[in-house]
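Team,

Forwarding the record for the chain on the shared tracking sheet. I've put the sequence and predicted structure together so nobody has to dig through attachments.
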Amino acid sequence: MKKYGLISLCVISLVTLFAQKKLSIFKTDTSKLGVAIGAVDSITFSSDKTGMNIHNSDKSVTTLPVAAIDSITVNDVDPQDLPAVVTGTVSGVSYTTATCGMKQISTGASVVIEKGICWSTSQNPTMNDTKAITTQGTDSSTVSIASLTAGTKYYARAYASNAFGVTYGSQVSFTTSSYSLPVVETVSATYNYSTNKATCVVNVKSNGGCALTERGICWSTSPNPTIANSKYSSGITTGQFYAMMSNLSVNATYYVRSFATNCAGTSYGNQLVVRALMGNVTFTMGIDSTANPEPFRLIKAAMDSACYYYNRYTSFTANIYVYYNSGIPTAQASYHGSIGFGSNTTYMWVGTAMHEMAHYFGSGTTSVWQGKMVSNVWTGTNASTLLKTLTGETLKGDAMHFWPYGINYKSEITSLGDATAQKNGLIIHTKIVQAMCKLDCGL
């Protein structure tokens, strides 16, 4: 009974005071039983006091004859009693996730209760920090690490625990990717005369690592527009999309840039220039500038100005061959042919150039146009309505020419008044030619 009493007192004290130690039970046959004190739930004795029952936290019971116990001591846990783990390499590091390998070398003196990877922004992380438990049954495991912060350095270790405690593998470190601004390109910006809008094509090449919150275009009459200026937003995904510039003035030059916004901020694409031009009329000078320097200078200036008006206020597209022949009385042109000027410098001005360009695009030089001119009155509804709306006049003509605003004579423009009124007359001319040849005649 004396031995029973001593064992009872000893065991109660050990379980209470040394929960993180190892209980070594030395038997009379010189063998030893090691028990993790932290895994002991309770100890009882048989009714006749001849047996000691160790009740473990896993519900198992170890029973020993009291007579077989020589002594009981408390020791630090031996390294071999703990599991052995190796921390693997970290891979697949992104902005908020990573993957870390681990390998369990041994279970130690009892079964492994838990294993995985623990991590922290401080060195030597433990199970008390953030962890990911693996339930893979193989010795080697791959553990996913999630909910990380972008652009942050982390430390990670493999761990495993059994009844005797926790062991850790070596420490590894890694840094998550930093979010960056989106990468965006302004592909094109094309003005549409009929709608007074510009259609832009934008390509968001990268979201910078975090989701877009806005994308689109911004524009202004000053260079380098921002989202504080006029803007059009469309979607929140990467890739190519269309965006519209609206409420544009035909008398202004606009600067447009694409933009995209994410958690890191707003980035801008390359800048494009948009002018209210719909046409693409150019010309090729077939005039010897050395032999005819003055005609070359005057005719080129006239054609430059004429192309400006036709490009800004019509949708015609052409490259016109322009030549000089001193035998031509004034100037001449053919449908989709060429334009020729004679030696009379009076006709080497923008009005004559625009008059001949009207012939080039079919005014008075095509049967369909001539068929719309009935009894000297234009019967096409588009051009007739346009002129009525602009000036209240009736559009008239003959088999070759139309009036008013046909610029058949220089006085048709110069008699309109000051420079602003004359410029408006040239603009009306281009709009009427567009309406007659394209809309009414389908040329």
